[in-house]
Amino acid sequence: MRVIILGATSAIAEATARLYASEGADLLLVGRQQAKLDAIAADLKVRGAVRAETAVYDLAAPENVRSALAQFCATLGGVDHVLIAYGVLGEQDEAEQLTDVAEEILQVNFNSVAAWCLAVADVFEGQARGSLVVLGSVAGDRGRRANYVYGAAKAGLATLVEGISHRFASNGPRAAIVKPGPTITPMTEGMNRKGALWATPEQIARVARRAADRTGPVFYAPGRWRLIMLIIRNLPTVIFNRMSI
Ligand SMILES: NC(=O)c1ccc[n+]([C@@H]2O[C@H](COP(=O)([O-])OP(=O)(O)OC[C@H]3O[C@@H](n4cnc5c(N)ncnc54)[C@H](OP(=O)(O)O)[C@@H]3O)[C@@H](O)[C@H]2O)c1
């Protein structure tokens, strides 16, 4: 199994890479920090990865997505699974005041990810197989004042991946959007992370790994978030507006 991970230094991506390593996969880890990538690659080899290659790339500012992806595939001699994990939460308050900040949140979490997804979709369609798994968020299910710019990007991503999954429906490849709830990773450092609703990267990783092999296209992580978000999406606006969530 040849697996490309875009945003491989993310805590959730690293936990997912460990699952692939235990299956003896060939991995290409793409991120923007060589030292971090090297450390993760060394650990994955110890855990069973047959290969753990690295590539440094600013994924949010791709110059030529298709040729970069072709290079990534060539490194592994082909590709079976792609996981897209990178993202930034950003500061909602700043995004409301400064156009640049809002644009950056949208560029990192939606525009650039969409470009990679579309390029991967063409490769998978061409070979009539392959699994694309993208990390979205429950924040995309209903806009909340705390993080609606980030949420809007993740909502767009969910629609895009659902569309790719529909495009693939009759010809072999899969596409899935995994929507984690709040997770204890560097992204949420500084938040009050106590309580039963917080998950570990390993919990999310198990869902992301399974998502590559199943027909979704939408996977909540952990699974209880499907019910929670069903309720939140259907709360009447008068009630929702009185809640500080
Ligand atoms: N943690 C949560 O509560 C939560 C909840 C729902 C969804 N998610 C989603 O899960 C995914 C993984 O996040 P995480 O929780 O694992 O957070 P994380 O550990 O903070 O990882 C975020 C990763 O994104 C990378 N990144 C950001 N901008 C990049 C760029 N321009 N080019 C390359 N890499 C870039 C960062 O790279 P550097 O190491 O170089 O900074 C970092 O590795 C994200 O898409 C996030 O939106 C997280």
Describe this structure as you would to a colleague.
By secondary structure, the chain is an alpha/beta fold. It has a single domain, classed as 3-Layer(aba) Sandwich (Rossmann fold), CATH 3.40.50. The chain contains nine helices and seven strands, in the order E-H-E-H-E-H-E-H-H-E-H-E-H-E-H-H. It binds NADP nicotinamide-adenine-dinucleotide phosphate. The site of NADP nicotinamide-adenine-dinucleotide phosphate (NAP) has 26 residues, from helix 1. NADP nicotinamide-adenine-dinucleotide phosphate binds next to helix 1.
List the helices and strands and how they pair.
Blueprint: E1 2-6, H1 11-22, E2 26-31, H2 34-46, E3 51-56, H3 65-76, E4 81-84, H4 92-97, H5 99-127, E5 131-135, H6 148-168, E6 174-180, H7 201-211, E7 218-221, H8 225-234, H9 237-240
Parallel strand pairs: 1-2, 1-4, 2-3, 4-5, 5-6, 6-7
Helix pairs in contact: 1-7, 5-6
NADP nicotinamide-adenine-dinucleotide phosphate (NAP) binds at residues 7, 9-12, 31-33, 36, 58-60, 85-88, 108, 135, 137, 180, 182-183, 185-188.
